[in-house]
Amino acid sequence: MQRRVVVTGIGVVSPVGTNVKEAWKAIVAGKSGITKLEGHDYQNLPCRIGGLVKENGERIKLANHFTKAELKTMGPATSYALLAAKEALNDAKLLEMDDGVKERTGVAVGMGMVDLEDICATNEALKKSYNQVSPFFVPRILPNMSAGHISIKYGLRGPNHAVSTACASGAHAIGDSFRFIRSGDADVMVCGGAEACVSPLAIAAFCRLRALSTSYNDSPEKGSRPFDKHREGFVMGEGSAILILEELDHALSRQVHVYAEILGYGLSGDASHLTAPRPDGTGAILAMRRAVDDARIKVEDVGYVNAHATSTPIGDAIEIKAIKTLFEGHHKSLAVSSTKGAHGHLLGAAGNLETVFTVKAVEEGIFPPTVNLDDVEDDSLNLVPVESQRWSSDKRIALKNAFGFGGTNACLCISQFL
Question: Residues 52-102: pLDDT tens digits?
Fold first, then answer.
């Protein structure tokens, strides 16, 4: 009999909250975490807004959570991952484990981009002197170090895995973890993604790609507007979300809370363009179809799709086209929304943060809203504009999409646990 995989713990560090309860409350209420980017280096950039991690109303101070010695060895993204992992492990009652459990517990954390500011600063240091280059520079910028730090801190000796598939990284890390458990390679996986990419250089680079929102610098909370007729690009965000996946019998034996069940996982490649999705949407269709098939359900069993929709004119339209194609005559009974209107696009940590909100949606029976969807471009679908909606169903099943540059696609099938 195939092993079943459930979610037993969640941790969040994000623009809409630095814990699960706070973040989910903000999402359901339709609150935005997008703010102005302050500082001289942003003044002449076309985009001057972003989704920053804040604590007590101010940019989070990592020195309040880690020692100077610890911060020397890790980049901000890894710090976010460690904070989210601690909350998730505590939530799952796994902060204390015996050696047998540690040997069967693994880690998989995705990251889309390394710390560009660290690279630039280290290059400037090298111009002054070879001795100015930190011996921790290379470990700080390696994409697998979030997973490595979590594994080391908690003594986890199962699979130690990292994913870097651009904006699909976090979703791929969760999907890979699901398969590790289902195949018997682990009983528990600490998984998700982390990103700390908001910097003048990164903003400038994405502006040169014409990927970012540039018309809402004076009203940042309106800048990210998936599916809206006036969308013009995404808003960059930062943070981390970590989920604890666990084999069902293992979770039941510990008598812990089960949030939801992961039913299936689908992957595909567009094989089309460096940054744009395939125009006919077949990459997204393949990923969603494969997740549904892997879950051994029918397309019509799905009641909600948490879309990748980043607020770009081309990407959002193609994803809607793909969803309508896959669901054919069933799309009118389907709800589709994107929470990026509230928190922006966390790149490599987008798919995992939005998986958290999808898990909460199936658990509580709520469709999270698409913030700033004031002028709907396609009214043939319920895009959950502005306000959250109740989800009434005998068994709630959702898909979570995540797509990345290079034409990489992931889709997770998530179900209410009954």
Answer: 999 988 999 999 999 999 999 999 999 999 999 999 999 999 999 999 999
* 3-state SS, one letter per residue, for the chain: CCCCEEEEEEEEEECCECCHHHHHHHHHHCCCCEEECCCHHHCCCCCCEEECCEECCEECCHHHCCCHHHHHCCCHHHHHHHHHHHHHHHHCCCCCCCHHHHHCEEEEEECCCCCHHHHHHHHHHHHHCHHHCCCCHHHHHCCCHHHHHHHHHHCCCCCEEEECCHHHHHHHHHHHHHHHHHHCCCCEEEEEEEECCCCHHHHHHHHHCCCECCCCCCCHHHCCCCCECCCCCECEECEEEEEEEEEHHHHHHHCCCCCEEEEEEEEEECCCCCCCCCCCCHHHHHHHHHHHHHHCCCHHHCCEEECCCCCCHHHHHHHHHHHHHHHHHHHHHCEEECCHHHHCECHHHHHHHHHHHHHHHHHHCEECCECCCCCECCCCCECCECCCEECCCCCCEEEEEEEECCCEEEEEEEECCC
Check: pTM over 0.85? Answer yes or no. yes
Q: pLDDT, tens digit, for every residue of 190-220?
A: 999 999 999 999 999 999 999 999 999 999 9
CB contact at 8 A, 41 and 280: no
CA-CA distance, 325 to 280, in Å (whole number)? Answer: 10
Q: Catalytic residue positions?
A: 167, 308, 345
Q: How many CA atoms lie within 13 A of 384 on its CB side?
A: 30
Residue 233: what residue type? G
**HSE-up of 265 (CA within 13 Å, CB side)?**
20
Task: For CA atoms 354, 355, 359, 361, give the dihedral sign.
Answer: positive
What is d(CA 2, CA 4) in angstroms, rounded to the nearest whole number? 6
Residue 21: CB atoms within 10 Å: 11
Q: Which tokens in the block code for residue 114?
A: 């390394």
